[in-house]
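Weekly modeling sync, notes
Attendees: AB, CL, MP (scribe)

Item 1: holo prediction request
CL wants a bound-state model with adenosine-5'-triphosphate before deciding which constructs to order. AB pointed out that an apo prediction alone won't tell us much about the pocket. Agreed to run with the ligand included and paste results into these notes for async review.

Input as submitted:
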Amino acid sequence: MPSSVMSTSTRDHSSPAAVSAVGLRKSYGDKTVLDGIDLRIPAGSVFALLGPNGAGKTTAVKILSTLITADGGQAQVAGHDLATHSQAVRAAIGVTGQFSAVDGLITGEENMLLMADLHHLPKREGRQAAAELLDRFDLTEAAKKPASTYSGGMKRRLDIAMTLVGNPRIIFLDEPTTGLDPRSRHNMWQIIRELVSGGVTAFLTTQYLEEADQLADRIAVLNDGRIAAEGTAEELKRLIPGGHVRLRFTDPAAYRSAASALREVTRDDEALALHIPSGGSQRELRAILDWLDSAGIEADVLTVHTPDLDDVFFALTGPAGTAHQPNQPNQPNQPNQPNQPQENAR
Ligand SMILES: Nc1ncnc2c1ncn2[C@@H]1O[C@H](COP(=O)(O)OP(=O)(O)OP(=O)(O)O)[C@@H](O)[C@H]1O
Ligand SMILES: [Mg+2]
């Protein structure tokens, strides 16, 4: 793999696109799954596609990796047109599907060598690539055992190791860390980061919003067949309200008197909690504390909540009105002030 051809400074919109798509459409029967999707993923970056179950994430991955064809729209992957040069696209990419491609009847090593054969690697090179990847994914010890004896996480790691045979420049990872324990998940993130710092482009889908937050340069949220929002994690968080200071009381009387003293707050009577809208900056917190002091209010627990990607996900994909309830400050539609330092007390 040519190393470090891309630095992080190239991860912006001026980079050549590894994946670009305009107006991608796909229906199954009368169900429209993708209703005109536009994408532009700079080379050497990580793109995360989020969305609820059934949103069409896997469908998008399958189209872009040539496993199925779109009904409409155009896409280029690695500079090749998907419709007319699917063979060239295939040569440039690696795909880890949502469900395992591991053959349980043969060993982990044999699975890897099979992939090397599929990539027409010479025998020696294939063996070397297999050994290196097995080691990198902590599977050397298990390499000679039938894959059917592997745990779910081991199979997932083998799956991804198999994707990397042949040094693909673009990798599609459909829920790469589902079922992995926290340590394996962090290892996987590290491996993805290393690949990307070597110039590889990663297109991943995930249900773990933290994963997108940690890894992705850009994130898109798929809902109802369309991209509901796209941007960096910070940009997406700024789209929604939700930053607040939460005051929790144990004494119902103290709660009631605070609630009547602080009229401009949202009440959560069940939890005995009050939410004061706040972007979470030090200055705002000081003002709130001063205000509470002067009103003689002392909460038992004070926490600062800044919107996270879970909030974004709920706000963008939930049925209207049900999303986001406990965190909703009483000033809906008032976005957080941009450029404010965001503290996070969770
Ligand atoms: N081969 C198929 N035939 C008919 N319908 C399909 C087919 N494949 C997918 N679908 C439908 O397309 C929609 C999107 O499915 P897809 O697998 O892309 O969702 P997803 O976002 O990956 O969901 P998940 O988070 O559960 O993996 C679903 O309603 C699914 O039932
Ligand atoms: Mg899926």
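Recorded for review: The chain has two domains: 17-231, 242-346.
Action items: CL to compare against the apo run; MP to circulate these notes.
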